[in-house]
Amino acid sequence: MKSSDYIIIVAGGKGLRMGSDIPKQFLPVAGRPVLMRTIERFREYSAILNIILVLPRAQQDYWRQLCSEYSFDTDYMLADGGDTRFNSVKNGLALVPDDNDGVVGVHDGVRPFPSIEVIDRCYNEARRSGAAIPVVPVVETLRHTTGGTVPRGDYRLVQTPQTFGTTLLKRAYRQDYTDGFTDDASVVENLGHPITLVDGNRENIKITTPFDLAVADSILSADKNSKQHSAGKK
Ligand SMILES: Nc1ccn([C@@H]2O[C@H](COP(=O)(O)OP(=O)(O)OP(=O)(O)O)[C@@H](O)[C@H]2O)c(=O)n1
Ligand SMILES: C[C@](O)(CO)[C@H](O)COP(=O)(O)O
């Protein structure tokens, strides 16, 4: 049995909440398309990680054009997007060999800033317990729409990459789709397998609206300023 790790980067969505003519995964963050930044973060994590990119077939020529324009030469495999996130993940998962024994992660193409430490934590925990997801605490009061607040300490905001043993994830994605499957952990948990929560990082935002794009730009310029500041101190 082969033991290789994979990351499935899903970018098959419509980006309706962004409301842009260009699909949001291709919009620039500090001058470079979001999706390239996301893929590069995983390559920075590991030179041997198998990267599977899931993109709608209709966008693949445009993506290739962008890759040549930005001299993007990271290696990856390509799968076609599906009509739901669930189906996009399923299409990516089909490229992972059935007899693989390693960990498979699933990550949103529009989350360019998972920290290297968080990625590493997710893969290590999945190797131990079979299923790990990064989460961050809720920092505001949570109110139920019908009235009353709920104890926010009981809740976490869920991020990606979500990581699993290959056999478990493949078995989970053989289930029929239901509306409750909003992430990969919900699909796996439906089999009865427990999910381990690990600390995520706050900058690991999902770029969903134009506001998030502005936040992403600020995250990168803050990062650049702090690097310049540290270099100046040496
Ligand atoms: N059929 C789909 C739907 C979503 N995704 C991916 O799942 C991630 C999270 O989805 P979301 O942010 O909701 O993206 P969209 O579905 O594109 O956005 P919207 O709901 O605003 O249309 C994104 O990287 C998106 O590309 C996917 O691969 N295939
Ligand atoms: C997978 C996810 O990013 C975890 O927070 C989220 O559930 C995706 O939700 P969306 O409605 O498809 O953006």
TrEMBL record:
Catalytic activity: 2-C-methyl-D-erythritol 4-phosphate + CTP + H(+) = 4-CDP-2-C-methyl-D-erythritol + diphosphate
Pfam families for this protein: IspD
GO terms of molecular function: 2-C-methyl-D-erythritol 4-phosphate cytidylyltransferase activity
Keyword Acyltransferase belongs to the record: no
Record key words, sorted: Isoprene biosynthesis, Nucleotidyltransferase, Transferase
Pathway annotation from the record: Isoprenoid biosynthesis; isopentenyl diphosphate biosynthesis via DXP pathway; isopentenyl diphosphate from 1-deoxy-D-xylulose 5-phosphate: step 2/6
Family affiliation: Belongs to the IspD/TarI cytidylyltransferase family. IspD subfamily.
Known role: Catalyzes the formation of 4-diphosphocytidyl-2-C-methyl-D-erythritol from CTP and 2-C-methyl-D-erythritol 4-phosphate (MEP).
Protein's name in the database: 2-C-methyl-D-erythritol 4-phosphate cytidylyltransferase
